[in-house]
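Known limitations

Files may contain more than one protein. Parsers should not assume a single record per file. Below, a two-record file is shown to illustrate correct handling: read the sequence, read the token line, then continue until end of file.
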Amino acid sequence: MLVENALRFLSLADANVRFVLLGSLLIGATGGLLGSFAVLRRRSLVGDALAHAALPGVALAYLWTGSKALPVLLTGAAISGVLGVLVMQFIINFTRVKADSAIGIVLSVFFGVGIVLLTHVQRVGTGNQSGLDKFLFGQAASLVDDDLRVMSVLAGLIILAVALFFKEFKALIFDADFLQTLGYSARWTDALLMGLIALTVIVGLQAVGVVLIAAMLITPAVAARFWTEQLHKMVLLAAAFGGLSGVVGTFISALVPRVPTGPVMVLIATLCFVVSALFAPRRGVLARWRRLRHNSRRESQQHFLRACVELQEKLATSRPLAVEELAIEMGLPPDRVKHLGRQLADKRLVSQQDGRFALTALGTEEGLFVVKSHRLWEHYLYYRAILDADHVDRPADEVEHLLTPEIIAQLEDILQREQGLDPAQIVNIHGTGSHYRRGGRE
């Protein structure tokens, strides 16, 4: 049965399969496209409010005309959705109610009115056969040729508008004041963006439904955000994730009878989000964990090198150092110190002999740089009166791993010019050893 359904889907011989597939693809792609702007504009829940605000319009359009034609119902949804946005803007602009509360009020009130009207529709005349309840959870399988034409026209208008006003939307998101200086009205640009989001919601109402359409706006866009820092790439990726969700959702729905397409599309979009959140190369959880682990290891190794240099200063000798000596200096267990020593030996920064560690020429150079970074930053904090001498150690311990040779040169110049200190003679400001911070920082 599954094989037959799969072959039937892949052949695209069934007109209903073609309608559902193309409709789901359009909904997913346009949802991801506009969702990118909604997420970056911090209007993610506006789409949810618009979807719920559209429900009364669908019911009223049916009661007024008695027609279930998609253009009629979507016109009612558009009017009701725009009214919801106007009410929401009125509450935000003329009351002390915050935006999130205004969205919650509009969402709940309009949805409540919609449910009441749908209940009334089911009780009058042939209302029980109207099928308007499908707008709650969506029914992609009910799409027909005429519905697809309407959705295609609306999707085309959305894509055209985004292409024409992409730069204006980008400026609105990142610097609305700059947009004003170019002669554009931020208010009207924002209104156009909200109108396109409303149009996107309306496109997906029949297939995905009022309850789930917000997920098709938000989830692909959030998934795309993990992969890139550039807006145009994020928009394209979000559209791709949304389109993929539509295609795969339709395929799974075709394989398994009576599984609705809309909820499966949302689940596939959520899977894209989970994969992106875990495996994105720079912003993903695993990438972040690897950076923290790398930073923690690098800091611990630099602490080892610094401990070797400072111990040699105290002992006035360059002899190999025992693990126990280093453990006391660093405040770490001997096993941990031994493990760090082996790691540095692999990098040829230290040599190991008879259970003792000695710095190589390369290790000495690296260790001296870390010590210098630490002490210069301590002196800078103290002489600039940022912190007292007994409070500068920990901040310097954190910053020493981040200082570059260029920053070191600037610190030397400042201390020499302002305080008359010879950078070559910078010593431990405390006169004794200091503590070593554990853990990693990005």
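...continuing to the second record:
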Amino acid sequence: MVEGHRETFFFYSRLVYYLEDMMHQALWLDKDEKGTKASFRDLDDALLGEGEVVVAVEWSTLNYKDALAILGRSSVVRKFPMIPGIDLAGTVESSDHPDFLPGQRVVLNGWGHGESLFGGLTSKVRVPAAHLISLPDAVSTRTAMAIGTAGYTAMLCVLALERHGVEAKQGEILVTGASGGVGGFATALLARSEYQVVASTGRMTEEARLRRLGAVRVEHRDEIAKPGKPLQKERWAGAIDSVGSHTLANVCAQIRYRGTVAACGLAQGMDFPTTVAPFILRGVTLAGIDSVKAPHSERLAAWSRLASDLSLDIIEDMVNEISLSSVVDGARELLEGRVAGRLLVRIG
């Protein structure tokens, strides 16, 4: 190769390397008159999003809300185009904020990412510093996403029960939707704190796994999924519900005097067909759990407890790992009820 051609070759080689380094792959959602369209796109640094911190994303998750957004089944996405993904964990690449330095491991849950702000199903994203939590030393980025919003929400629920005085010695705790991500983590976390957990699920094939997570008994959800009386036999000292609708109404009707229900989901529906009877006759507390905009102090408390209360074998028993390229298929399986546990998305 002559000298001039060689210099030209190396110049373009360096240019291509530089341009590739400036690109990142993302799951891209757009919308037209036919509905939401999902595709994989190579994006440059001009399309990283808004905020002070650029994160090289290593792991994300596929949650129920993500699946709805990807397949256009609900108005989850508030503006288009959008990169979905309510969770992410990775390493700070660059930062204009003093609390976050390059190389620092971080996690993000909620805050409207994947809805109105770019989310975690991408190899790189820019986010507001206020939305990030520095990961505890004991938690890797992979483990953080194996836990994800599901485990973080479950921990918020457990903290709410504790805050309202529900103790292990008071009796059994019911966890609804136990085969799902939140329910599985709630079962494991409560069992770790020596509560007697009864797991409610529509998938009795999951009984062995739920018992491994710590459930003392597993019941079919049909017992509580149908319309019921506003006051029923007192059974539970407390409950964690991710289902809503008739299930939540029946759970409240079965809570013991001055017990607490932590409600965090609506898998069965957003309606709540009950009366005030459980609340004014038995002093039942219904504690709403919002994981999206929870204060920074509560997030820190939740992640600190997650780092100490969950063993790696429990976490691994709850996850199925998929690649970024498999996310659309995973979304279909999730909405069709064919996924048990969590879908952990490998970005790299």
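Parsers that stop after the first record will miss the second one. For reference, the second record is described as follows. Residues 141-163 form the longest helix (23 residues).
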